[in-house]
Amino acid sequence: xxxxxxxxxxxxxxxxxxxxxxxxxxxxxxxxxxxxxxxxxxxxxxxxxxxxxxxxxxxxxxxxxxxxxxxxxxxxxxxxxxxxxxxxxxxxxxxx
Length: 96
Fold this sequence. Notes:
By secondary structure, the protein is an alpha+beta fold. The chain has one domain (22-91): Arc Repressor Mutant, subunit A, CATH 1.10.10.10. Helices cover 56% and strands 15% of the residues. The protein contains five helices and three strands. It has helices at residues 6-19, 22-31, 38-45, 49-61, 83-91; strands spanning 36-37, 65-70, 73-78. Strands 1-3-2 form a three-stranded antiparallel beta sheet. Helix 3 (38-45) crosses helix 4 (49-61). The relative contact order is 0.17. The model has no long low-confidence stretch (mean pLDDT 93).
């Protein structure tokens, strides 16, 4: 196996950076249940469509979600469900 390079770790850090927002974690956990329209996510998150769309773009650019268009709406799905294992692990970390 080839040793990892700094660029490999930079790519991993970019994914972790995408996770580093409570709204994005909420979105990811919602998408584990089903593909969801931006309009539904907006109501659940409590932000406007523009703000939710920006969060989704960050997650999409990190390779965590994918989108498909249906009429005027975009529907998002989780394409990297193992990331939720990481967030579950973090939930077990106790603050000192």
